[in-house]
């Protein structure tokens, strides 16, 4: 079996350092906001090229806190794409606000700035997603949001280390291109913890201070609470794991890029396969080895029969999810988003994937299209 993601191989590679880091936390009993968390926050901020990083309990918690910190509340509207995981919009609902779904750019799967411009009236915040590891169109989105006087919060859960060129020519990293960036460290992410964990990045000191209070019961001292907050802290054990893995993240992302380029080269011209290429001014970290094909479901079944893990990210767009049926959307409302949902397939991709394993994946894909041709 070749899995979609191999967490065991990843642990084996880091085992000695991770075991030592976790043992240090346990022996010092620094389980809540211990030194390992402060070290990780410092190092992750440097990695993202931001002034601050605040560790929190999950990527969903990061979005919840960031939206709360910018003042999203009951009756507000937040502009979001529908081509993403439901965690992007759950915090919108928790705060009493309503998601306004914005169509995607068919070439990248990310929020389309032109569609956002048509949907910006009455919006309280904009929440673009760096989907599949590819940066969204942040320069254009930031300009539209600035004209409307509303903040932008990046959902960077799949984009640890992704880069984009800012309007002044500087190279920014995901999480540092807007007011705030929200990261998930779910185990299967490019930077994955041993459970749930997340972070918020920002260059705004006042925003960072507010998020720090909100994540920890709104406290200013141990028993003084300035605002009503949440229990959204990151466990120190998770920070210790993440601190070890962060040291190889740039190299791991480079390996992902090599493997993705190899997929594209070996599968060029096969069937109707279409890969999402790099976009000028933006560098992906290839969280998913994403391709599109009209034969998606049959290819998925064929790969599974061959012992090859694959996935669909995401088969049901958010505007068609049963949980959001109350918004009244139907099929055909976001046709570009729906086309992505119908045709997306993710192949195995992780730094530990060998070329021999990748060759087996390629052989299985080519064999399938030889049969359906």
Walkthrough of the structure:
The protein is α+β, with helices and mostly antiparallel strands. It folds into two domains: 7-246, Aspartate Aminotransferase, domain 2 (3-Layer(aba) Sandwich), CATH 3.40.640; 249-372, Aspartate Aminotransferase, domain 1 (Alpha-Beta Complex), CATH 3.90.1150.10. Helix content is 39%, strand content 14%. The protein has twelve helices and 15 strands. It has helices at residues 7-28, 35-48, 59-69, 90-94, 113-119, 138-148, 205-215, 236-246, 249-266, 296-305, 335-343, 355-372, and strands at residues 52-56, 77-81, 98-102, 125-126, 153-155, 163-165, 171-173, 180-184, 198-202, 219-221, 224-225, 274-275, 282-283, 289-292, 344-347. β10 (219-221) and β11 form a beta hairpin. The relative contact order is 0.16. The mean pLDDT is 97.
**Side-by-side strand order of the widest sheet:** 1-9-8-5
State the low-pLDDT regions, or none.
Answer: none
Question: What is the count of structural domains?
Answer: 2
Fourth CATH level, the homologous superfamily of the largest domain: Type I PLP-dependent aspartate aminotransferase-like (Major domain)
Rg over alpha carbons: 21 Å
CATH architecture of the largest domain: 3-Layer(aba) Sandwich
Give the class from helix and strand content and strand pairing: alpha+beta
Amount of helix: 25-40%
| CATH top level assignment of the largest domain | Alpha Beta
Count of β-strands:
15
What's the CATH topology label of the largest domain?
Answer: Aspartate Aminotransferase, domain 2
Average of pLDDT? 97
Overall shape: it is: globular
Biggest pleated-sheet summary = 4 strands, mixed
SSE string, helices as H and strands as E: HHEHEHEHEHEEEEEHEEHHEEEHHEH
Q: What is the number of helices? A: 12
End-to-end Cα distance, whole Å, is 26 Å
Strand fraction: 5-15%
